[in-house]
Amino acid sequence: METQRMDGTTVLVSGGSSGVGLAVAKGLARLGARTVLLSRDADRGRDAVRAVQEATPGADVDVESRVADLTSPASVRRLVEDLGGTVGSLDVLVNATGSVGERGDLRPGIPRSFATNALTHFLLTRAALPLLRDAPEARVLTVGVAPALVRRLKDFAVDGVDANASGVRVLTQAVAWKLLMSRHLAETGAGISAAVFHPGLITSDLLGRQALPLRIVGTIANRFARTTCPVAEHLGSRTADLGPVGGMVDDRGRTVALPPTISTANAARSWAASEALVDQLE
Asked: Please, which residues bridge with residue 138 across strands?
């Protein structure tokens, strides 16, 4: 997939200390972007910075890490205020935070897995809008899942989250809401482009703390996985037209057909519901 240099641009990558986020950061930093990684832990953030630097030996890559709790509106506001004072504008935001197997509620009625896999993306994106609007042709890229799963998104809540739903249904709703967020942002974001991308098979420790069968699956998958994310480099470096409707692309940069449930009306409803849920995190 085609890429171009990103010198003079600034990108912010959530989940940047491992997995997809780290893979994306390596590629965008290699293309010359000033790359800011987000992590919940300062030590993991420093390790990620070294990994990005080592991925491009001999190059003077501009990469740094910041610590933020993306489930905390106050923490996200502090982060964005600090970025506004240091980087000014934001050309690309990559939402790459994700989890598998989280249990319990972050707040009453808000499953922790839904907060991590959907609300963190919304909270960071909404807070970063002023920085994105200050950049020409800014874009927001959000990690998705395999297209085969996306095509089956037919029955999910739009106006709230069912705290009693199974873990699979909660994660299904999170996938749908990321697509709806992207669509709403692209349609209302005043010049901001948005897309959801399937990263392909990326080296990750996401399954490392799960039950033994899943750990085995993760170990085998990592033998065949990439340590970079070419589709994110393609989309982030503005070589791809994301279009006006906030769609999705697969790991080869091809447009994915979305089900009718990913509609303008549902996008507006889920955006409003996300705002209400995020208010409960204050």
From this structure: none
